[in-house]
Amino acid sequence: MDVVKTLTDKLSIEQVKIELLNTAYGYHHTFLQRLDPRTLFLWYLVFGVVPFFIHSTPVLIGLAAFLVVLTIMAKVSPLIIFILTLGLLTQGGSYLIVGLFFGGNVTAMLPLLKLTLKLSVISMASIVVFCSMSPEKLSDGLLKIGVPGQVSFSIGYAYRMLPTLVEEYHHIFLSYRLRGKKPAKKGLFYSRHLFYYIKLLIKSFYPLMLSVAKRSRTMVEALESKGSLYGFNHPKVKQLKLQHLTIKRRDVLFFSLSISYFIALIWLS
Questions:
Q1: Number of structural domains in the chain
Q2: Which member of 90, 115, 192, 205 lies 3.0 to 4.6 Å from 187 by CB, making a disulfide possible if both were Cys?
Q3: Cβ within 8 Å of residue 81, ≥6 positions away
Q4: Which domain holds residue 48?
């Protein structure tokens, strides 16, 4: 019973909100968080795209081991690791069931497992990069590489607002539960209760979308009243805003060692 209680506490809505806040605003002062965002973008372009075109299993295993180490160094939230692991296990299990259903055997799973390994490498690369950047750092990095100011600000703002939206969605869901009444009969394997809560989850999205539209309009009007359009497009304002972004020795060292490891894996395979 104690194990079940501990698992329930870790999977509660409050714990999910804490993990999201920790991902968006938790600064662990890791090595990756001290890197320039342009270095992380370029690194992600290599390790997040190139592995999809690699078919060598030893190279993919080596990349997966390298990214596991980086994921530990980045101090990624356990919630994100759990979601990634659950998705990969579900995908691998579905491949196995479909293969056996159509008369295949375990050997037919090998190409599909290689695809799963590719997706895991790309997913871990995405997690390492985007969990190592705060919303401000992500927005400034996109602005530095030439993304329009409105787009870069919108991405950073959406990243920042995610924990708030999760909390608001939770409140809407609780309000529906307070005003509603769940079925008196549980049904087979709690099926009636399950369908009732799924219905509430779907209905809770509609007030949330209206709230997001209202928040977005208020934010746009506030930015326009402060002359943000001029700041987004004026070169001197951009230069002043982004003057703290510099490529340092650790950026060059990290990218060089990563590429050297990648090339060594390909050569040894």
A1: 1
A2: 192
A3: 71
A4: 26-133+246-269
Q: Distance (Å, rounded) from C-alpha 264 to C-alpha 269?
A: 8
Residue 142, in any domain of the structure: no
pTM of the model as a whole: 0.78
First-last CA distance in the chain: 49
- According to the model, what pLDDT value does residue 133 have? 85
In terms of Cβ atoms closer than 10 Å to its own Cβ (0-12, 13-18, 19+), residue 35 is buried
| Cα distance between residue 210 and residue 164, in whole Å | 14
Residue 260 lies in a domain: yes
Place of tokens 């990069």: 129
Residue 174 located in a structural domain: no
Quick one: 119 exposed, middle or buried, by C-beta within 10 A (0-12, 13-18, 19+)?
middle
Here the tokens at position 81 are 């690791």
Per-residue pLDDT tens digits for 4-45: 445 445 556 667 777 766 766 665 578 888 899 999 999 999
